[in-house]
Recover the amino acids of this structure.
């Protein structure tokens, strides 16, 4: 069976912040770019970002990109690549100004400049005191930003393929990437998108956990496709648990609440962060705050009848500040926690939020793999940006606001890198003879499978395993048994079946295909976590409680084939400034 | 809990029908979307769109007991049983609760929903006072869920000619933005018997907006500006 083919200069998978920042570069350069998205672009998960974009504009007081760089490196627990971090922090202010010029409705100061709020882990003068660096639009920054980027792409006539799900990466025998196969959800039709350059901007996979702030669409599609095509996944053991997800519901409450002056209380009404982070208190970095909260709960000081959550107090900010700066939070608290934060605290728990790891890239957005002795050899024609990529600017723990900074800076840079590659490499290389067969086989299996396992139940088993075996605190026996369990679950994923065989907008089939991607991420996470015998950033092991720079100052690379792990060095050499040597991390 | 859900798969069904479900819920199921996910776990053939499950992405708009809303922020305890669920009215149905939104987005795109300003951008941000920025509140928060536009009788009659409340809200978002320099072109484009003036202030849009926005007021402001520039 021959699959319809279409040729483009570039194909981008994912229309969130990173994908649409990149597509804008390509479309405005006059290149023929196709952007594929499972959902209408403004429904991508960037829409849910609340607190702001980190950039040292210095609108609220002295600030510098170098301090931002230091905070990011310290926040990463020294696992971040310092050249990439320097690149991002230097480029951040320009990225914010561009977005403003595109029409982003930022909040304003009295002098008409962009308002910036304090955020966790961001400081003046190398950790001395908190700084106001987060550029925001109330607590709807991601929404305002995603709509602005979509609108700018409408102006640029970017070609979107809305409700198309990418299925598999196309590589030729030399390893060069030549596009993707994809399915139109409305009709079930499969096409080959033949491209000279391919960017994955597919976001995270937070749906591997039961309790997650992530949208249902965050199923790690790019990671699954890359892993199946032989690309390793980097630092997958590092998952951020956001301190303030609504207890029971998982919905995010921005760190901006604490930035604006809110704080956390245990059941005794104690502001416990003063004990864990005497200087930055509630604005310590997220891994530190989440661990403190989990410790309070574990030691019996949680609130509520089951002592299983922490209270986020903000009523003292007053209704005016809450309505002006945090209106969305008030809405969420009323709907999902049945409390009005103007009067009562919000019950919160640490909740899976962000994947620090991903498809390994350099700071130009090129996907890089170990090859011929070089740990970071670019894969021709392949790029990744945003949460699905790992540059690595977040290392072992991301600072709040840096996700939006990341996708603006690396979205644009990967677009520019692709433009250079396209100019230097004219003409499409031939597609391999068996192109698309893998995708058709996956679809055929779902078509013909009878008596298969329920996608819902196997997915729930995966999420329970991740939640129970690979959470905020990690224990050696739980990690070991978790690896066994998740491998067994992966076997079950191969035997899933669906009752719905319709071609028309078959979401059962979409969910089955998504589970194929999620499970790769789940296995990569547990295998990488079990192997890393230290505690660093978001990875906290009971048996190796300290960071171990002698043995573990290195990135993990997980290969799907044989669940093999390799490691590559952390880049401690910035582009222009002195290296920040690892030191003890306290807030 | 009892539900009656509009079902239609063009590959199998001659015509749409309502299917009944009686589903046992868990204590953690608060919102209508939670119940729909329980239903989908036992009947995977039910198609619907959903993503953020917190009311910001705009995917799961549907007609709930006769009124448009988002399933993810509609409390189950507020719903009369059997809960009647239908696709958004006035748009072609692709399947079950999934509608073809092309016409809705075509109207949105028709108002040129992007900032127009031909001046060379400054090195830093453009200056905008807090008061000027405040003019955008209640406008920029639209999530394009289409609850309003598909609740509007004027849009049902003239979906190809009337922009509809969502598109007009966004049109006013740019007219109200001090950084946008295309106000007169925007007004010219809307000065037409249909594009703007089919709005008869029925206010269904205000009634259903899950974000509490007021498209009717924005439309009124466009009309005011238009009248002012005529005199």
């Amino acid at each position: 069976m021959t699959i319809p083919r279409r040729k483009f200069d570039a194909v981008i998978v994912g229309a969130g912040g990173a994908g649409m920042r990149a597509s804008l570069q390509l479309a405005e350069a006059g290149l023929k770019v196709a952007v594929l998205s499972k959902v209408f672009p403004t429904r991508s998960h960037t829409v849910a970002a609340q607190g702001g974009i980190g950039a040292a504009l210095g609108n609220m007081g002295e600030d510098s990109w170098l301090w931002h760089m230091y905070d990011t490196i310290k926040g990463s627990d020294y696992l971040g690549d310092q050249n990439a971090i320097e690149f991002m922090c230097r480029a951040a202010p320009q990225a914010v100004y561009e977005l403003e010029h595109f029409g982003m409705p930022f909040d304003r100061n009295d002098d008409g400049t962009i308002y910036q709020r304090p955020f966790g882990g961001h400081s003046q003068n190398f950790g001395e005191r908190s700084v106001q660096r987060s550029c925001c639009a109330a607590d709807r920054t991601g929404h305002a930003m995603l709509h602005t980027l979509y609108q700018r792409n409408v102006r640029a006539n970017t070609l979107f393929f809305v409700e198309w799900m990418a299925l598999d990466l196309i590589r030729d025998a030399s390893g060069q990437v030549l596009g993707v196969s994809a399915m139109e959800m409305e009709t079930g039709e499969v096409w080959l998108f033949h491209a000279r350059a391919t960017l994955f901007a597919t976001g995270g996979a937070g749906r591997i956990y039961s309790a997650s702030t992530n949208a249902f669409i965050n199923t790690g599609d790019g990671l699954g496709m890359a892993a199946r095509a032989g690309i390793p996944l980097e630092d997958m053991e590092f998952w951020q648990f956001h301190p303030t997800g609504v207890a029971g519901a998982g919905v995010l409450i921005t760190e901006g609440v604490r930035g604006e002056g809110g704080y956390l209380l245990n059941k005794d009404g104690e502001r416990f962060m003063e004990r864990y982070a005497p200087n930055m208190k509630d604005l310590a970095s997220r891994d530190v705050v989440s661990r403190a909260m989990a410790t309070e709960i574990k030691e019996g000081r949680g609130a509520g009848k089951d002592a299983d959550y922490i209270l986020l107090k903000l009523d003292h900010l007053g209704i005016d500040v809450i309505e002006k700066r945090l209106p969305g939070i008030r809405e969420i608290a009323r709907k999902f926690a049945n409390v009005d934060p103007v009067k009562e605290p919000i019950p919160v728990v640490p909740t899976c939020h962000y994947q620090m790891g991903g498809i390994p890239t350099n700071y130009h957005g090129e996907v890089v793999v170990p090859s011929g002795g070089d740990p970071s050899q670019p894969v021709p024609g392949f790029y990744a940006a945003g949460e699905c990529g790992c540059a690595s600017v977040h290392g072992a723990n991301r600072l709040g606001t840096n996700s939006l900074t990341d996708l603006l800076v690396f979205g644009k840079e990967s677009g520019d890198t692709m433009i250079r590659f396209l100019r230097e490499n004219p003409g499409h290389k031939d597609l391999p003879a068996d192109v698309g067969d893998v995708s058709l086989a996956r679809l055929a299996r779902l078509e013909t499978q009878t008596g298969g396992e329920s996608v819902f139940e196997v997915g729930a088993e995966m999420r329970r395993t991740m939640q129970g075996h690979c959470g905020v605190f990690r224990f050696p026996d739980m990690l070991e048994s978790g690896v066994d369990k998740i491998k067994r679950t992966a076997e079950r994923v191969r035997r899933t079946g669906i009752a719905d065989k319709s071609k028309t907008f078959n979401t059962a089939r979409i969910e089955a295909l998504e589970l194929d991607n999620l499970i790769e991420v789940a296995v990569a996470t547990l295998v990488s976590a079990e192997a890393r015998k230290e505690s660093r950033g978001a990875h906290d092991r009971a048996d190796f409680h300290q960071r171990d720079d002698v043995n573990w100052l290195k990135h993990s690379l997980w290969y799907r084939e044989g669940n093999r792990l390799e490691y590559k060095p952390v880049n401690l050499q910035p582009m222009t400034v002195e290296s920040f040597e690892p030191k003890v991390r306290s807030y | 809990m009892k539900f009656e859900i509009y079902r239609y798969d063009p590959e199998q069904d001659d015509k749409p029908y309502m299917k009944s479900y009686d589903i046992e819920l868990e204590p953690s199921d608060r919102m209508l979307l939670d119940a729909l996910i329980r239903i989908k776990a036992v009947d995977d053939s039910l198609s619907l769109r959903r993503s953020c499950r917190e009311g910001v992405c705009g995917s799961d708009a549907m007609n709930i007991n006769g009124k448009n809303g988002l399933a993810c922020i509609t409390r189950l305890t507020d719903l009369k049983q059997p809960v009647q669920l239908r696709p958004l009215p006035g748009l072609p149905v692709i399947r079950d609760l999934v509608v073809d939104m092309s016409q809705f987005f075509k109207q949105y795109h028709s108002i040129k929903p992007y900032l127009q300003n031909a001046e060379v951008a400054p090195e830093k941000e453009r200056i905008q006072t807090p008061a000027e920025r405040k003019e955008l509140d209640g406008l920029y928060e639209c999530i394009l869920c289409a609850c309003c536009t598909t609740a509007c009788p004027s849009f049902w009659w003239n979906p190809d000619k009337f922009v509809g409340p969502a598109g007009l809200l966004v049109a006013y978002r740019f007219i109200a933005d001090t950084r946008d320099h295309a106000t007169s072109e925007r007004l010219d484009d809307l000065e037409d018997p249909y594009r703007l003036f089919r709005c008869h202030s029925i206010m269904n849009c205000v009634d259903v907006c899950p974000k509490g926005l007021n498209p009717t007021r924005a439309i009124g402001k466009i009309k005011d500006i238009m009248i002012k520039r005529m005199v």
Remarks:
- Chain A has a mean pLDDT of 97.
- The longest strand of chain A covers residues 190-200.
